[in-house]
From TrEMBL:
Keywords from the UniProt entry: Metal-binding, Zinc, Zinc-finger
Pfam families, alphabetized: zf-CHY
Keyword Transit peptide: no
Keyword Metal-binding: yes
Gene Ontology molecular function terms on file: zinc ion binding
Top-level lineage group: Eukaryota
One GO-annotated biological process of the protein: protein import into mitochondrial intermembrane space
Protein name in the entry: CHY-type domain-containing protein
InterPro entries in the record: Mito_Tim_assembly_helper (IPR052604), Znf_CHY (IPR008913), Znf_CHY_sf (IPR037274)
Limits of the CHY-type domain: 1-71
Any one cellular-component term (Gene Ontology): mitochondrial intermembrane space
Length: 123
């Protein structure tokens, strides 16, 4: 699973060390040598698990698909975005983090409050 490209559809075999990687950044993190670039690329489809070769010098639109299962592997890469979120339990199981808007807070004044002196004057 690649942490750089979230929707990687194929694994790529590097020519330099003969290992499989999801992207060039994964190769740079795990290996101590630069990635050798060649025109011929070897892919492994993550959908059908079959290996195939593609020539980068003669690339057309039909080369964007796996020749075995027609999985479209040349797609816009989704990279992870930094964001802050509040994670909590499922509210159906533990609802302590939810605020009930129907319950009045301590500092709020209500017209018919038992502690209010004006409530006895209303009748």
């Amino acid at each position: 699973m690649c942490k750089h490209v979230l929707n990687a559809q194929v694994a790529i075999r590097s020519h330099c060390c003969k290992k499989w990687f999801d992207c060039a950044e994964c190769h740079a993190e795990k290996e101590d040598h630069p990635l050798m670039k060649k025109a011929e690329m070897i892919f492994a489809c993550k959908k059908c698990k079959k290996v195939f070769r593609k020539d980068g010098t003669d690339w057309d639109e039909s080369d964007e698909y796996c020749p075995y299962c027609d999985n479209h592997f040349v797609i816009d890469a989704l990279t992870p975005k930094a964001e802050l979120r509040v994670e909590m339990e499922d509210p159906r199981i533990d609802n302590r983090a939810l605020k009930d808007e129907r319950v009045a807070g301590e500092g709020e004044k209500i017209l018919f409050s038992l502690h209010d002196q004006q409530a006895s004057k209303l009748g």
